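Workshop exercise sheet. Pairs work together: one partner reads the sequence aloud, the other fills in the structure field after running the prediction. Swap roles for the next sheet.
Pair: D.N. / O.F.
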Amino acid sequence: MKKGLMITLSLAVLALTACSQDQPTQSATPATSAANPEQMAASAPMSGGGTSGTVVETMNAAGYTYVQVDNNGEKIWAAAPAFTVAVGDSVVVPDGMPMHNYHSKTLNRDFPLVYFVDSVLNASAPELSTAGGMTMPTGHPQTDTTAPVDVDLSNVQKAENGLTIAEIYAGKTELSGQNITLRAKVVKFSPKIMGKNWLHVQDGSGDAAADTHDLTVNTDVTAQVGNTVLISGPLTLDKDFGYGYQYNLIMEDAQVTVE
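Structure field:
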């Protein structure tokens, strides 16, 4: 009994020590137990894969740059390895690690919710953004949360006068610049990135090992993971948006109908 008590006390001391450091440590507060409605609203823009907006507040501490980003009234805090940014800059914040009730020892400030990310892309000054390959400071948790989820693709029917994803990849050179149509299911949805909603879609065709099974689409339409969608739009090869967004194959400004 005493041994169990000693272990419990030791763990408690370690937890208190970790929370006193400026390096992010996973909060004991569950993601579903936000302290107030403002905190719940702040988490919403990041739930689908990132957000973009205007910086309304920023500061540096312990090798990090903190930014508060306003996306049409929805505000979030994000932190990344130190980079140059100013109030009023337009930034893109990717998926990150949500830290609830986070205390910065260096700033002596509490954040109800802050997202720690590998980089923040400064669209107002892209040459000053954090390099895409830069790593987080020692001890930072992994932030890669972008993998598409498993979706049942067994019942996807090819669109009338349309193509499968495998056929699109096979004929991509000839199809480049042409309007194409396909039916597929949404396996990942990321809203409000660079002014568009971003979909990864699959239809069960193609080769995952060769990366010819998944197609990226951007659109104004909102969809959910698992939705079957009919997509029409131009096909583009080797598209580089800058700020780390590069695609070998993409459909831009597509018309998307959720079926």
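Discussion prompt: The first strand starts at residue 51 and ends at 61. What would you look at next?
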